[in-house]
Amino acid sequence: LGAVSRERLNAPPTPPDPGLTGDAGGGPSVDAPPTNAASQSTAQSTEQASIAPPFNVGYGGCSLGLPGPADPLLPGLAAFAALALALRAARRRRPLAAGAVVAAALLATPVGAQAVSPGDTAPAFALPALDGGTVSLEAERGRVVWLDFWASWCAPCRQSFPWMSTMQRRYGERGLRVIAVSVDARLADVQRFVAREPPAFAVALDPTGALAARYAVRTMPSSVLIDADGRVLAVHAGFRASEADGLERRIERALDASKRPLDAGPAR
């Protein structure tokens, strides 16, 4: 597996066209799934080559390297991974690796689970906030939400954090709320990351990866644009500076469609 992972890391990726997956505005897709059976088979085989951490750094995102949601071996793999990690930790008398915990949680995603798609109702959540209190999707009803899943070990997240802060400051008064959900198992890792990249938006904690599994997240960062009525407008995997303008335009269109300026919330 190590040789396959190194081969994937060293292979030059093919840049996708800029845009958003499922962009309701009619733009091109980004990281869209293959459109023919042969391509899908190849993509699934490549993903299955590496099931556990270390994570694979892809083009603009960190892939968890997990098998596809339709794989019938998923529940067995999840149980095996959880047992192996627990036994290893017990023998060495040390905590489980944060990345391994998250990978095991996402492996446990039910068979047949699919990533959210444009037009779906966004799965509700209520998570502890990094600065205290609770962050919930229901509390943001009436606002456009940029929901981002990230982790401290994800290199592209160091680029997306400053961009999300800019978006929150620029569009907060128009009704945008950025929520970044950390899947780190250790709070200290989250705190170290935000100390280097202070956010101007809400940070929520998902240490078991339960919410990420509900959204069928496979790449860090992964983002979901949600309209004022709680419906998914677009889904995006990874982050590249070259995409920033296109993503911002999509946010602007969502805000224009809502036309309900709201209080931006407390300054951060």
Can you walk me through this structure?
It is a single chain. This protein has about 270 residues and is of the alpha+beta class. The protein is built from eight helices and ten strands. The chain has helices at about 1-10, 35-50, 75-90, 100-105, 155-170, 185-195, 210-215, 245-260; strands at about 55-60, 60-65, 125-130, 135, 145-150, 175-180, 200-205, 220, 220-225, 230-235. A five-stranded mixed β-sheet has the order 7-6-5-9-10. Strands 1-2-8 form a three-stranded antiparallel β-sheet. The protein has a two-stranded antiparallel ribbon with strand order 3-4. A hairpin with a 5-residue loop joins strand 3 (about 125-130) and strand 4. It starts with a helix and ends in a 10-residue tail after the last helix.
Defining traits:
268 residues, disordered N terminus, disordered C terminus, globular, 5-stranded mixed β-sheet, alpha+beta, single chain, 3-stranded antiparallel β-sheet, 8 helices
